[in-house]
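Hypothesis: this fold can be encoded by more than one sequence.
Test: take the structure tokens below, design a sequence, compare later.
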């Protein structure tokens, strides 16, 4: 994934795979109940199902979209909201430009997804917005984080767990994670050859 020669198709597939693995950890504490289903062989089997409404996945646009399919492979009945947040390149502050959350988000466990957790600003803004709706629980998933972003986030939201594949060395003066993997959105969607 970090290799600058990895094309968009392979990058997308790797993001999906890592997201799927992270989703197992991010959902392991959700309450389940045992139920009985009929199998195609006309027998019954006991299975576990999440109690209550299915979780809501909320990707931070646009790069967060790349993580959704990996989670849906584990929880196919999850619903997907969307938050458009970008980081102003001058101030490094988050700007919310789109908000389409489920109407019943207060009845759901929510997983915010964004591959890159750099300054923490976008994730903090997403949590600020979603917490107003009082979800059953709130957690976040990212592929790559910076120590600075994690520290800033934990000061404001120590109760929210972030499931992360790797924490890199640091941020540079432009707020990019180093050594990083480039711009995840560009690499997912092919808008730049190498990110």
């Amino acid at each position: 994934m970090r290799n600058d020669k990895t094309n968009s198709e392979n990058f997308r597939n790797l993001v999906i795979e890592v997201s799927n693995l992270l989703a197992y950890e991010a959902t392991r504490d959700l309450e389940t109940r045992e139920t009985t289903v009929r199998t195609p062989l006309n027998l019954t089997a006991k299975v576990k199902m999440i109690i209550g409404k299915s979780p809501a996945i909320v990707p931070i646009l646009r790069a967060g979209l790349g993580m959704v399919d990996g989670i849906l492979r584990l929880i196919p009945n999850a619903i997907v909201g969307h938050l458009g947040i970008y980081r102003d390149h001058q101030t490094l502050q988050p700007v919310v430009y789109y908000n389409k959350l489920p109407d019943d988000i207060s009845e759901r466990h929510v997983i915010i997804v964004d591959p890159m957790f750099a300054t923490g600003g976008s994730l903090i803004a997403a949590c600020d917005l979603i917490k107003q709706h009082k979800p059953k629980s709130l957690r976040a998933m990212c592929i790559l984080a910076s120590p600075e972003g994690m520290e800033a986030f934990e000061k404001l939201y120590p109760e929210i767990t972030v499931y992360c594949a790797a924490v890199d060395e640091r941020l540079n003066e432009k707020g990019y994670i180093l050594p990083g993997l480039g711009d995840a959105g560009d690499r997912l969607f092919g808008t730049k050859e190498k990110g």
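The two ends are 11 Å apart (CA to CA). The chain has a mean pLDDT of 91.
Hypothesis status: open.
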